[in-house]
Amino acid sequence: MSIQNWPFHTVLVANRGEIAVRVLRTVRKLGLKGAVVYHAADRNTAAVKMADVAIEITGATPVASYLDGAQIIAAAQACGAGAIHPGYGFLSENKSFCEAVEAAGIRFIGPTPQQIELMGDKVRARNFVQKAGFPVAPSAIEDDDPASFVERARAVGAPLLIKPSAGGGGKGMRIVRDLALLAQEIERGRSEGQRYFGDGRLYAERYIENPRHIEVQVLGDGQGAVVHVFERECSVQRRFQKIVEETPSPALDAALREKICETAAGIARSIGYRNAGTVEFIFGQGGEFYFLEMNTRLQVEHPVTEEITGIDLVHEQLRIAAGEALGYGQTDVKSSGHAIEFRIYAEDPARGYTPTTGPVLLLHPPQGEGVRWDSGILQGGEVTSAFDPMIAKLIIRGRDRSEAIARADVALRDTVLLGCKTNTAFLRRLIAHPAFVAGDVHTGFLDANPQIAAEPALREESLQALLAAAALSTRPMRDVADTVPDMQAAMGGWRN
Amino acid sequence: MKRIESKLNTASSEFAANAAHNRRLAEAFREKQRAVRHDRPQRDIDRLRQQNKLLVRERLELLLDPGTPFLELSSLAANEAYGGEVPGAAVVTGIGIVSGREVLINAGDGAVKGGAWYPLTVKKAVRALDIAIENRLPVVHLCDSAGGFLPLQAELFADKYYAGRIFRNQCILSKMGVQQVSVVLGHCTAGGAYVPGLSDYNVIVRGTGAIFLAGPPLVKAATGEEVSVEELGGCDMHTSVSGTADYPASSEEEAIAIARDIVAQFKRPQKTLIEYLPPEAPYYDPGELYGVLPRDIKQQFDMKEVIARLVDGSRFHEYQPNYGKTLICGYAHLWGYKIGILANNGVLFNDSSLKGAHFIELCNQNKTPILFLQNITGFMVGREYERRGITKDGAKMLMAVSCSEVPKFTVMCHGSFGAGNYGMSGRAFDSRFLFSWPQSQISVMGAEQAANTLADVKIRQLAREGKKLSQEQIDAIRDPVLGEFKRKQSAYWSTSEIWDDGMLDPVDTRNALGIALSAALNTPIADPRYGVFRL
Amino acid sequence: MQHAFKLGEAEHNLALSRSAKAYRLHLDGQLIDIDLKTGADGRAWLTVGERHLPVVIATRGDEVFVHLEGEAYALRYQHPLDRLAAQAHGGAEDSIRAPMPGSIVALSVQAGEAVSKGQTLLVMESMKMETTISAPRDGVIAAIRYEKGQTFDRDAVLLSLEPLS
After folding, report:
1. Scanning every residue of chain A, which has its alpha carbon at the shortest distance from the alpha carbon of B65?
2. What stretches pass through the bilayer (chain B) (predicted)?
3. Nearest residue of A to residue C23, measured between CA atoms
């Protein structure tokens, strides 16, 4: 369903890392020119290397440069880009940017500014969805009456989840189990919200114990057609951030799947949604689910959906942005097999998942049947603390879940990244856990099973091997050994 | 080169009896060595530990490259002296590998009498530095000495080869461009202060190391000045004020690590090129040497069986196999190095002496180091042999041995009696290294022969006075002489007196010679030049 | 044996020597025959005793990174001279280091200020979370190395403390 005559010939990717590479791949596959903006810190990355045009942008910090809409629009104009793909994060859900792009006569590959605005504010989104007749969790909203917020939050009852109204991606979220700490936690949350989003308003909702995170991929052409592209389960999280995402969800039977997917499609339909989007639900152990939020952009975990449906979601985004109608209906969307995505983070799970930094001295991505490696890093590059610690995604496809898990174990084992610690060994421990194998996980799973994050004791023989490898790779040690004359080396530690 | 065909019957009862006997001797030697190395009065060990000092053996292990050999020299020096109270003569010397370089190590043993220098301590240290000079070996001194042992000062201070020779040798080494590093791990007082002082580099440990010509008590006595050890000659003073010491260290471990790094800066020597083949283990098991050596010093055995258990592949090119057969001469490789071997298979006759002298000249001509394997009762005596010129033939051999320019190595395998000791490059003939096997014996003649000779003199003297001695009286004269002779011809005596560079378990001989050969090749080999051969 | 590698918090003393054919590892009183045959792009065959293992190795400065049996490990070499000098100077750690990479959100103290144990020194932000760094003991702030907003790597010295005079 590709188009012959695109209304734009160059697409600028206003992002970095693996997603910039991912978008550029489709852009170039379609015969379009791919441009990318980059901060100097990203000069030696895959996106910059593969783009037809790469334009440097600057800012007070590396992150700030990717948030500088004016510079990015200027870059798009400079390279004659007719469309901007915002990726995820950064300006992808920024209404003013979206407006400014369109005002500059450039297509924004995303939803309308109004849709961004509606869904970008959690409180407004929630109210809208509730009014449209879809299920939401009990909550208290600061905006409704700031003076009584703390009391109303208290009235919802513990456990409570406090989130910044303007937030997303888990930033500034806190669980309050002890209401005595409520005021203090609200204060903290407000401070973080203010810092991240320039907006300290909060909202609080009932925290569902041991919930699953299930989300539904939707596609809308803004001309009335909306389909869902099945669900993704993203329950394995640490600090409210997803680590492993898969589809189909092991928690859903056919009926429940249809119900949750249709709910998502209904929400998207109710706003005449344009673009690829994701409706996130919180899913209780009893099968109940509530609307959480809608992300009006491409998700990090979109590849698993692509792997089981064969749909190139970036291609669909480009078509929709080009003004194409979707051109197919729900029954045309089919899936087969199972796909799991692993987020490769530069972090140390055993030290509270703290981010790690370092050079990428060696990088051997895994290969094999059903293995997809989406990454923006290159051997010789550097992982810095300037950006999010996610450095790659490993997506594994199998005929069924167990085949996918088995392939994942091999692929994770074969993933070599030296110079900066990553979570690959942790991911292997995770997928070997019986609960994961059984599909029996929830968003608190890792907190409840801290031993998965803990580094297992090193076996004696592994230690020997490591020290042997290290000693033989260390010049001062090798020099001491190598300067010993042959005869004395052969005699060894002989004493008379 | 073809392999020696061993004629040894390893299944024989003779072999088994020899093996059992010699293994016992080797074990007894090992036990003595163990005691010398490790048995120290607990209070001395406690004192060192309190001072955060390591034992000398611990220091050595820190100094040496891991997994490399250490040829300890004269491990049983002074073992028969001073009532056995100065094990190893209170100093450890030897050749080891430090930062990949062959070095000579001279390490005082602070756990023996505070590391005081006894006469044999001085002799051992001087000999070690002679070895360094002869073989151009860099030296690492680990200094921890209380100074000269005053009650015996007359036997260690002033003579040509007494303590002054240590410093003289250090200067000569320096003049030759052979580098030295000292690690000051204890006090270096008086003469001892010159050991670090004369080294190219030195390291000193803060707190325990000190260098001064006189310690605080002597200073107080001499001038009335009261001064602490640290102020007078401590680490910080010497490394920041006087410049007497170069590198400060906060612990012995650090000091030794610094010394290792210093040695790593030494230029490695260009070895003298001699014939070389890749090394090969002996075809015959060196462990069978125990069965080769007879239990009786007077009993003859085939030295070829010894050669077969020392040299590469047991291969041997024999020179003049049918002439002068009591002296085996020929070429072999040992740890790859081509050597010439002279080995006794009986008394030296005229032909064997001439053969030996000729072969030594051959080795000098083609720059082949020589190994002497001694089992010699001497040159043949008697009218017939004097008429044939045994003395002048022996003199030819001594001339060849003495003037030899190639490095020589001697192993006292069994007996070493009379002038045979000289002809086969005994201690006086400047072998680069000389080692003894535990059962070997050295004396001007056999013990019983000597005791009988002395008894005969006495008997004849008394006979002239008309007295006749009973057998008991004869025994009373003879037995003490025999006892004294036996004690002093024993290898334990010679090694205690440092007539050799140490006793070896026979199975260790191959490695010891390998290390010795390698060290010897640091020095170029000059063209041969001799005195006058009496023809 | 004076060479050491740090693996995590643990320090392992070891030595390497050459054998007739390859190398020997001296570890905890054991001698283990080892060898490393290197191939392209960091891949290598490691021999440890009787075992033959495929490994991937990269080095940078004193760091050695080894991918072994599906896991990546980072070892830090400690040169004997560094290690022994550090042992000698030992004592209380006066540098307060970053537990993780991040940036300074707030500084609560100034250089020269006396602080008591447990007092908040600064608030840092890492991975979207705030972390408070407090004084490990009583002392005086000797120097502050980062200003508000500045980013740093893990183990960076954030500030140093000297004893109360």
Report:
1. A480
2. none
3. A481
Question: Which residues in chain A (440-479) have CB-CB distances under 8 A to chain B?
Answer: 479
Please state which CATH number belongs to domain A212-452.
Answer: 3.30.470.20
Number of structural domains chain B divides into: 2
Using a CB-CB distance cutoff of 8 angstroms, which residues of chain A are in contact with residue B335?
487
Chains that touch A (3 or more CB pairs under 8 A): B, C
For residues B288 and B300, is the Cβ–Cβ distance under 8 A?
A: no
**B-contacting chains (≥3 CB pairs under 8 Å):** A, C
| Residue B28: pLDDT over 70 | yes
C121 and C145, same domain (yes or no): yes
Nearest in space to B370 (alpha carbons), one of B378, B358, B354: B358
Residues C67 and C100 in one domain: no
CATH number assigned to the domain comprising residue C156 = 2.40.50.100
- Residue A425 is predicted with a pLDDT of 95
Does domain A10-109 correspond to CATH entry 2.160.20.10? no
The answer as to whether B472 is a domain residue is: no
Q: What residue numbers bound the domain in which C48 lies?
A: 3-88
Average pLDDT, chain A: 93
> Which among A389, A462, A468 has CB closest to C25?
A468
3-state secondary structure of B19: helix
Angle at CA of residue B505, ends B501 and B506, nearest 5° = 100
Question: Closest Cα to residue B127, out of B95, B81, B86?
Answer: B95
Q: Per-residue pLDDT for C1 more than 60?
A: no
| Whether B69 and A484 lie within 8 Å, measured CB to CB | no
Tokens of A353: 């998942």
Say yes or no for a CB contact (<8 Å) between A487 and B335: yes
CB pairs under 8 A between A and B: 65
Between A185-194, B440-449, C80-89, the lowest mean confidence (pLDDT) is in: C80-89
List pLDDT tens digits, range A215-259. 999 999 999 999 999 999 999 999 888 999 999 999 999 999 999
In CATH, A138-206 is 3.30.1490.20: yes
Closest approach of A469 to chain B, Cα-based (Å): 18
- Can you spell out the DSSP letters for B379-419? B--SHHHHHTTHHHHHHHHHHHHHH--S-EEEEEEEEEETT
